[in-house]
């Protein structure tokens, strides 16, 4: 930093649009985003479905879609923002244009959401949805892994990355994605279920880990029907995990 920067500090910029904004030190991560961008992201507010986290106007504890899911397959999810056009653009910039700095921004918002909604849950492990090796090779990173690492830093919890075989060490491996599928947002509900059935499995190295005692926070970027989260949770439950919760950026 040059000496005159301390005398004439540059005004901070919005994380997303880079316009100058006022920021209060040590305040919420939302204070680092301008009001216009916050409005376009549409933060998720109550009331929401107690299972999928979707804003809900229905009576009862969960929405009609979640009522169709067997109790033993349900995974509670909370999300930061609605899946608006602005949110789609932010995630596209992060996932498809290689702008990995977004992981810090989005991860900070997700960490605050975890503290708000899961403050009484004694998490012991944070992990994330895996990418197929082919998709990992194309993209160069797993966006869910980067988000999980940022959340782990903010919560002071270990991150156990769920990664494909090429990018993980034996100490980190739990699950792998053994078959690829089209982008879930492009598929209907039935097609999503079919494309993800049997897509994940416990890795050989993961079988050596004692997962039963852990309360796991499962991280992904987008929650659509929840099929991806439930399929990953199914494998973790087979491995002995009793308590699994999810956090996604967009819903």
Order of helices and strands: HHHEHHEHHEHEEHE
Give average pLDDT, whole number. 84
The best one-word shape is: globular
Q: Major β-sheet, in short?
A: 4 strands, parallel
Number of H/I helices: 9
Secondary structure layout:
Blueprint: H1 3-7, H2 35-41, H3 64-67, E1 76-81, H4 85-96, H5 102-117, E2 125-128, H6 133-139, H7 143-155, E3 175-177, H8 189-196, E4 200-202, E5 215-222, H9 227-238, E6 243-250
Parallel strand pairs: 1-6, 2-5, 5-6
Antiparallel strand pairs: 3-4
Helix pairs in contact: 5-7
Write structural notes for this entry.
The chain has 9 helices and 6 strands; from the N terminus they run αααβααβααβαββαβ. The protein is of the alpha/beta class. The chain has one domain (27-250): Rossmann fold (3-Layer(aba) Sandwich), CATH 3.40.50. Helix 9 (227-238) links the parallel strand 5 (215-222) and strand 6 (243-250). Helix 5 (102-117) packs across helix 7 (143-155). The radius of gyration is 19 Å and the shape is globular.
In short:
The protein is built from 9 helices and 6 strands; from the N terminus they run H-H-H-E-H-H-E-H-H-E-H-E-E-H-E. It is of the alpha/beta class and 251 residues long.
Defining key terms:
single chain, 251 residues, alpha/beta, Rossmann fold, two-stranded antiparallel ribbon, 33% helix, 13% strand
């Amino acid at each position: 930093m040059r000496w005159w920067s301390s005398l004439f500090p540059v005004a901070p910029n919005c994380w997303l649009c880079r316009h100058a904004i006022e920021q209060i030190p040590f305040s919420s991560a939302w204070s680092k985003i301008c009001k216009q961008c916050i409005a376009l992201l549409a933060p998720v507010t109550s009331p929401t479905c107690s299972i999928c986290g979707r804003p809900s106007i229905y009576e009862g504890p969960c929405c009609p879609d979640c009522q169709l899911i067997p109790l033993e397959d349900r995974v509670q999810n909370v999300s930061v923002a609605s899946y608006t056009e602005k949110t789609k653009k932010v995630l596209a910039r992060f996932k498809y244009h290689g702008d990995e700095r977004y992981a810090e921004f989005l991860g900070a918002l997700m960490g605050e959401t975890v503290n708000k909604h899961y403050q009484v849950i004694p998490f012991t492990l944070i992990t994330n949805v895996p990418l197929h090796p082919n998709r990992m090779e194309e993209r160069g990173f797993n966006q869910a892994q980067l988000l999980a690492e940022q959340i782990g830093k903010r919560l002071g919890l270990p991150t156990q990355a769920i990664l494909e075989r090429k990018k993980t060490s034996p100490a980190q491996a739990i699950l792998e994605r053994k078959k690829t599928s089209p982008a879930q947002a492009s598929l209907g509900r039935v097609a999503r279920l079919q494309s993800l059935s049997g897509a994940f499995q416990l890795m050989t190295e993961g079988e050596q880990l004692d997962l039963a005692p852990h309360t796991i926070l499962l991280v992904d970027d987008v929650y659509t029907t929840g099929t991806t989260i439930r399929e990953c949770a199914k494998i973790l439950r087979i491995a002995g995990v009793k308590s699994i919760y999810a956090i996604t950026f967009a819903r």
